[in-house]
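Page 42, continued from yesterday. The earlier attempt failed because a stray header line got pasted into the input along with the sequence. Redoing it now with the clean sequence only.
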Amino acid sequence: MKKSVGKETKSHIRSFIKTALQGKNKFFLAGGIVFIFLLLFLNGFIHGKKRIEGLISYEVKRQGLVISVVEGGNLKALRSQKIINEVPGQRNILEVIDEGILITEKDVQDSKILMKLDSKDLDDRAEELRITVENSLSSYTQAQQNLEIQKKQNDSDIIQAELNVKFAKIDLEKYLGEKLAGELIINESENINFSKLIANPQLEGEALNKKRELENSIDLSKEEVARAKDRVQWSEKLSEKEYITKSELDADRFSLQQQEASSENSKLGYQLFLDYDFPKQVALLLSNYQESLRELDKTKAKCGSEIIKAESYVRSSEAAYLGIKNNLSEAEQNIVKCTIRATQPGLVVYATSSNPWRSQNPIQPGTTVYDRQDLLNLPDFSSMGVEVKIHESSIEKIKVGQKVLIKVDACSGNQFTGEVKKVAPLPDATFKWMNPDLNVYLVEISLDKNGQNFDCLKPGLSAEVEIMIEKLENVLVVPLAVISQREGKSTCAVLRGSRIDIRKIELGSSSEDMVEVKSGLKEREIVVILSGEMGEQVKKTPMAETGKFKSEETENMPTEQPPTTNTTRPENSGTGRPNR
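This time it went through. Structure tokens are written below.
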């Protein structure tokens, strides 16, 4: 009917325009234009009236708006002790506590045994290590004693070397005198002419004494020669007068020869002393002193080397001792770890019960377990909570500390309160492995301990949580169903009398079925959900992570059929169950 009326109206308008253009009367042309507008108005009124019939309307009003995220999850104990095998290698289970037994505080105080692992090989190794520890301790003690002995020996060697230096210096000073010896020590040189030192005015000591003795001997021999000559002369005179015999004269002459020979010997001895004995003795004494200094340096270096060697042996012996001792301690600790005792209360749950990959090797006596393998779980019922998986589109809304309402079907629909305790910083890797294109984040919610009865709560039960994001007061709200997208802008259909206006609006935060209108609508205005031909252009308004409308992301969204009621539900979050 609508299509036939439209065609008839259009044909009338075209024929009238043709007649008006052919006519030359201006009044007729003006009247024709007025007639056309009147005809269009009547046509729109008739058709608009028909279009309005059957539309769902909603009055724009001010009210409170609760922004929340609803998601399903499972109960879990937030404080759950995971017991793993901390003993290296493969171990056989000797005994294990029955699954489902509740560990109490008294069991913890009594150190109740939960599981025993085979430790025979560890016992044998520990016994061998105890013997090795005793031997290494003996070597370490001996090394320490040798170090102390070496320190004392070094002290003795250095003292003796220092004495040798001191004695060599004394010998040099004794021979040359303290001043000349000191000057010679200071001015050490390989080109020293030691023979010239005999004439040094600072010469003292044995060298000066020896020089004087030789000089005195020469003077004395000269006196003896002079006396012998006088006797010979007197003897010759007396022999001429025959007062003495010839033999007596010969004796005096022989005595003169002896004195002259002795005088020559004294002169020769003095010259030998000056040319050879003195410089040789000085060179020898100076060399002895210099050698004693070098020997002192060698002794100190040798003592340092011996100390380093002894200390190195002490350190290596200590390291060997401590290493073997640590091995023994580790073996003893592993023996203790083979007996697993209760350290906190909770319900005994075998790790293989919740892990299908381990079902072929159940926790029971005789089963072989490996290092770092999960053995038991002890969830603490006093710290119950809910673990939910939030889609990445909503994770930005979730903050630690937000209040939560929890509903557990197994507890006759009882509602509990809690708060967000932890938000995972990264997507769940397990879920991402199953569906690489979907990112969900684990969120832990703790239940409030404000007198709530947790007797019906057990880990693994399904729960539905509503996380309170924001609560707005006295804001304009409309249903999400009335919102559509046109040219990237948010619009809605406003009923004005018998007409429908398409108006651009600015949106704010949204709940699951209602959205805040910041501008574009007034209180008590009537908005409608378009149906029929116009309704096919209506798009459901998606909301961003912060609850704000994102026109850029919804420009190219596919067209959806409008709902027939004034409430909507958001799309599936991808976690296996729809949001509520």
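Notes: The longest helix spans residues 246-337.
Reminder to self: strip header lines before submitting.
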